[in-house]
Amino acid sequence: MLEARKVSLRLGAKSILRDVDFKAEPGQITVLLGRNGSGKTSLMRCLAQTQTRWSGEILIEGQPLRKLDAKTRAQRIALMPQVLPRPPITVRTLTAFGRQPYLGMSGRLSEADEQRVDSALKQAAIAGHAEDLVCHCSGGERQLAYFSLLLAQDTPVVLLDEPTASLDMEYRQVVYALLRQMKAAGKTVVLILHELADALELADQVCVMDRGEMVFTGTASAFLSSRIPQSIFGVCPKTVRDENGSEYILFAPLDQTK
Amino acid sequence: MKSMQKRFLLPFLFLLLIGLGFCGLILGSARFSFEEVRAALGSGGDPMIRLIVLQLRLPRVVGAMLAGCGLAVSGLLLQSATGNDLCSPNIIGVNSGAGLAVMVMLCLFPMAFAGLPLAAFAGALATTLLVLGISVSAGGHQSRSTVLLAGVAVSSLFSAGISFLSQLFPDALASYSAFSVGGFSGVKPADLTLPSLIILGGVAVAWILAPQLNLLCLGDEIAASLGVRVKALRLISLILASALCAAVVTYAGLLGFVGLIVPHLARRLVGHDLRILVPVSALTGANLVVLSDLAGRTLFSPAELPAGIFLAMLGAPFFLLILYQRRGRYA
Fold first, then answer.
1. Contacts of B40 (CB under 8 A, 6+ apart)
2. Which of A62, A220, B253, B257 could cross-link B179 (Cys pair, CB 3.0–4.6 Å)?
3. Residue B66 clears pLDDT 90, i.e. is over it
4. Which residue ranges run through the membrane (chain B) (predicted)?
């Protein structure tokens, strides 16, 4: 479980986060929503401790995050940032980096670590590209390569900042399937998404941020029945039903619904 | 390069270094036979040959090996820590800092040649600390680009300082020129004691840091989430790189290009894993500098050219070749 209590962040004169309370449970997908600049990525950086200037309290499995040393923290929380570098290393090497928090000083992988890397490559459906250089991979392949790193890191908490930002529909479905696998494995999955319909379909819990504050926490249906879609995102949810009776949620811009 | 070939690369480079080192003992203005050198390295042989081999050529060869190791690993550390493969000790101002300190010494104490190595070492380290200080206050942290930009600015300022002093004190210029080209003529065993400890210790520490340094290519956020203390690692790497370079500068002067080209050459041979890159760079650098020194004192014998000139003649075209081959590779 990951919990933030009254977390605030100031960078220079600017207040980025104000008294944010947040809780994500194991075996659930928590989606952070909000407009650009609302503080989602900053909160995620604080939760991953890659941003350290926050005040308040962040607990992981009941333990204060600040008290964990870097290696122990890396065994508990994994982060996939929005911008993924393109290093000139193979997908297999990238995946093997996920085992780094568990290795000794030599950085040598044991046989069990090698097996974990192989299984992460297969699970992320990127084993066929294991020997390709990451810098030569397409956007979708690169995303899956970084997913295999996350899987190899094998942490109970996984944070993902817009993991589908540059992906086509096919790769998005692969990524969503991987997220559901992580959830089924009992991991605490927290992700930032901009596609509202996809977010509501995936999420067990929806959290909405606005101007550095947490303005909504609840289920997808509570989100739909609130005024948040209109007031924060400027859209109106509409439920449509196809001829087979399946329901879909569409979001129409408010000015088109008048 | 295939993994089988990689496995044999380190022993090959080591044997090549031994072979080049032996050539360095045999060849020179007076040429000796293999047997004569072997006898001199033992306890027998002609006393004159023994004197030349042990007191003149051996320190020179060992000095060249250590300089190649130190500069190559220094460049590798800088390139890894800043994420910029065009970074080298020259770029972050280590060389110009050492140069300015030497120039100041030559102007203030023209006869104090014994103090020059210490001045060079102090200048190089002080410059690194200054560059880090500026980058911290300017960028709020030791980010990649702020360190580089601060280095370029400080380097330009110190180069201007050297030019300014050379105008005011033209007599100091001749001594400074020899220092700025770099070479191993006149290196004595005592000159190598402290630098050898720093260089061998520094290369060992770089190898220990290699698994963590490998992760910096993923960017600061992912590296931190994998357990790397990014700022501390970057700071240690920069200080270590400067110490390695400063240790070389104390006895070999300002040798250019080794820190820039050797890491590139090593990457082409073994890829980007620093666990293997550190030893391969160290041995490749040692081979390159010993070869340059050997060429400098044999090709135009009895005249002798400093190793620094040969390194620049080899290094500049090689580097341009790399730049042309890289075109569009990571686009």
1. B25, B32, B46, B49, B50, B52, B53, B54
2. B253
3. yes
4. 58-78, 90-113, 119-140, 147-166, 197-215, 235-262, 307-324
